[in-house]
Design goal:
By secondary structure, this protein is of the alpha+beta class. The protein is built from 9 helices and 18 strands. It has helices at residues 4-8, 44-47, 53-62, 102-108, 126-129, 149-156, 169-184, 235-238, 252-269; strands at residues 22-27, 30-43, 48-49, 68-79, 84-87, 118-120, 133-134, 137-138, 144-148, 188-191, 195-198, 201-205, 214-220, 223-229, 245-246, 272-275, 283-289, 292-297. A 7-stranded mixed sheet has the order 1-2-4-5-6-9-10. Strands 11-12-13-14-16-17-18 form a 7-stranded mixed sheet. A two-stranded antiparallel ribbon has the order 3-15. Strand 4 and strand 5 (84-87) form a beta hairpin. The chain binds zinc ion. Residues 125, 127-128, 230, 276-277 line the site of zinc ion.
Length: 299
């Protein structure tokens, strides 16, 4: 039988879409699925601090990349068999962002949004909470949404507004708009750190990037998986040079101390890592290398 394209003599149309972006592995009794939301374009030579633009270009070149690069936006589902827990939600409808594929990729992975029982946010930045609503409506109608009390206090308390620089005002409006919808739907819960946010998952403080940033440690059987949110934005640079910060860090010095602590512990304990901004699927391990560290992606 002729291929359809032989009939007309034309080349089959190619949609330009990627295959569904999810990646699955097991940890103890749990199934972990990395979900791609897309990628954010970042001029790292302008955003990274504590390093010269030339050095950034050098480090990126070693990874066959340029300083202006697409940075993955990853979220993760932990499926315990009884509960489905989503860690971060991608950027949703962020202006100028071409991602927002979280919902489609969740469905492709067998997890329609209504099947999610619990959403854990590593912090209140739009590329992590943006997928919580679509056109103002909560996307995960059956989920509790948990975030640290400290980040909720910083981003959702309108009294803070006068004390913050104008460059962050839009982020505040954005956070309040989305998070208030979730709160109004009765879904929002805050916790003090450290916290057992699920029988298998602990939230541990990772301040600096935002005041109430956390990492989530899953202990499932003999396996430990650390979902570390924004500990690293530029893996080709910051893994080797953890003292390099990024302008999105609210307290850069604290963010550097946190990064150094988390990297040291991750390498020492041999955690598997789920990283929000390391190339999809953002799952791998950290080993010491010279003065810094090296990322070993899952194969
Ligand atoms: Zn982020």
């Amino acid at each position: 039988m002729n291929h359809p394209s032989d009939v007309t003599g034309s080349v089959p149309q190619i949609s330009g879409l990627q295959a569904p972006g999810y990646y699955r592995l097991t940890a103890g009794d749990a199934t972990i699925t990395a979900i791609s939301d897309g990628a954010l374009k970042m001029p790292l030579d302008k955003l990274l601090t504590n390093i010269s633009p030339e050095k950034v270009a050098q480090r990126m070149a070693l990874a066959a990349m340029t300083p202006e690069t697409d940075v993955s936006v990853n979220a993760f589902v932990v499926d315990t068999g009884e509960q489905r827990i989503l860690i971060d939600t991608g950027a949703g409808q962020l202006p100028g962002y071409t991602g927002g594929h979280l919902q489609d990729n969740l469905r492709a992975a067998g997890y329609p949004p209504e099947s999610i029982d619990l959403v854990l946010l590593t912090h209140i930045h739009s590329d992590h909470f943006g997928g919580l609503t679509l056109n103002g409506t909560p996307v995960f109608p059956n989920a509790q949404v948990k975030v640290s009390q400290e980040d909720a206090r910083y981003w959702l308390d309108r009294d803070n507004f006068d004390d913050i620089p104008e460059s962050r005002h839009r982020s505040f409006h954005n956070a309040q708009q989305v998070m208030e919808r979730v709160r109004a739907a009765g879904q929002l819960q805050t916790f003090d750190l450290p916290a057992q946010v699920h029988p298998l998952i602990r939230a541990l403080p990772a301040p600096g990037h935002t005041p109430g940033s956390v990492v989530y440690l899953l202990e499932s059987g003999a396996d430990k998986v650390l979902f570390w949110g924004d500990i690293i934005h530029a893996e080709p640079v910051q893994m080797q040079e953890p003292h390099v910060a990024i302008q999105f860090d609210i307290d850069q010095n604290q963010a550097i101390r946190t990064r150094e602590t988390v990297l040291a512990e991750t390498a020492r304990e041999g955690y598997l890592v789920g990283a929000a901004h390391i190339a999809f699927p953002g799952i791998g391990r950290v080993v010491r290398s010279g003065e810094g560290y090296r990322w070993i992606a899952v194969s």
